[in-house]
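Q: Start with the shorter request: fold the first protein.
A: Done. Sequence, then structure:
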Amino acid sequence: QVQLVESGGGLVQPGGSLRLSCAASGTFFSIGLMHWYRQAPGNQRELTASVSGGGSTSYVDSVKGRFTISRDSAKNTVYLQMNTLKPEDTAVYYCNADVYTSGGLKNYWGKGTLVTVSS
């Protein structure tokens, strides 16, 4: 069984920064693509940022230049550095990963961490 556990959410003022972390644990061979999604109240879940095993990254247009996704493969952890936060960034942020297990490639979700941007 594989678990993804997010941390680092909280309340921050507009213009501030937060760093989210997501650590994978359990029994598996390796991790492929890792993603951060977010879901604001009343909205659908949105793919926010992705990072490949080789370090290639992609972002939704609304966070380009402000958010940076990175990973530490030795720690099986993905990060999301969020700068210049705006009220519209308020959402529950979810970690998602493609994990190579003895049962093949499987996709896992974390339970989410709440980010609130407000003065």
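Q: Next, the second protein, separately.
A: Sequence, then structure:
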Amino acid sequence: QVQLVESGGGLVQAGGSLSLSCAASGSIFSINAMRWYRQAPGKQREFVAGITNGGTTTYADSVKGRFTISRDNAKNTMYLQMNSLKPEDTAVYYCNAVGTIMKSLYNDWGQGTQVTVSS
């Protein structure tokens, strides 16, 4: 499996920008895809964006055109650039990695980083 550490959260006004990072360590070679999820108070965790080893990206409709996911394989780090932030983007953002080791699937999570967007 892998260990994931998020950073970059904080407080920002509506319309502003934040950049999140997720540093991965451990069995990096086994990662198939990495994703960002978020969980707002009282709500279920939801998918935000994902990127495969081949660089294919996917986004939730709610963030398309505002958020950009990227990955620096040399630094074992994934990023989420968030622009035009809205109060409804307020949530704890989690980094997720899925992969395979010895034919066994794993699904690892970071500890989360808080993003708060004020109106």
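Q: Describe the second briefly.
A: The first strand starts at residue 2 and ends at 7. The two ends are 39 Å apart (CA to CA).
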